[in-house]
Amino acid sequence: SQTIHQWPATLVQPVGSPLSLECTVEGTSNPNLYWYRQAAGRGLQLLFYSVGIGQISSEVPQNLSASRPQDRQFILSSKKLLLSDSGFYLCAWSPGGAGQPQHFGDGTRLSIL
Amino acid sequence: SQKIEQNSEALNIQEGKTATLTCNYTNYSPAYLQWYRQDPGRGPVFLLLIRENEKEKRKERLKVTFDTTLKQSLFHITASQPADSATYLCALAPPNSGYALNFGKGTSLLVTP
Asked: Closest-CA residue in chain A for B96?
């Protein structure tokens, strides 16, 4: 069966520090991969999605970036965190193709001080 | 602009009753609509997908309807149980993207014994 792993579960970072969140999927090949952010009291905001290695679509302009160095690995990065980057970050995968259900990891709670 | 609207107020119902949650959308022409469940501090879990040519879909105690004329989906939980208490999210694919999903902010459901 397919599984998705996200780490760390919680992270506290100072303003201006870099960020790297990692997500890996097991048990499937060529998945679509997604990064979302959920701020307190707000809905899920799609940040990036990828339909293949090296293919990244950005939905929201910001100081975050994403990379997909391997088929089942998706990384969310920032060079300098802002206070507004605080939130709950979720990685998800879906089978290749359009109109597929998405399967989420357990998320990373990021607090910026 | 596209909007997905779900009842922002929490829905409180008694165990055994049917819970009905609403999802309205504007400026979408979706080929399908998805429903997810999210528990506090966890990632959303996929429940059901309904396509534009399907009026109704069922899965155990869950039923989803999809009215593309009214631009509305209804999500029903019959014989509700306290374990059904969670936030329920509806999601649609934005125009020109068959891969990404836009989520509503969700409706919180509380089932009391």
From this structure: A98
Fold of A3-112: Immunoglobulin-like (2.60.40)
Is A11 part of the contact surface with chain B (CB cutoff 8 Å)?
no
First to last CA, chain B: 41
What are the distances in angstroms from CA B14 to CA A43, A110, B80, B88, B92? 26, 36, 8, 17, 30
Interval B11-64: pLDDT, tens? 999 999 999 999 999 988 888 899 999 999 999 999 999 998 898 999 999 999
Residue of B6, B45, B101 to mutate for A, most A C-beta atoms under 10 A: B101
Answer yes or no: CATH 2.40.10.270 is held by domain B3-112.
no
* Per-residue pLDDT tens digits for A56-86: 988 876 789 999 999 999 999 999 999 999 9
What are the sequence ranges of the domains in chain B? 3-112
B60 CB near a chain A CB, below 8 Å?
Answer: no
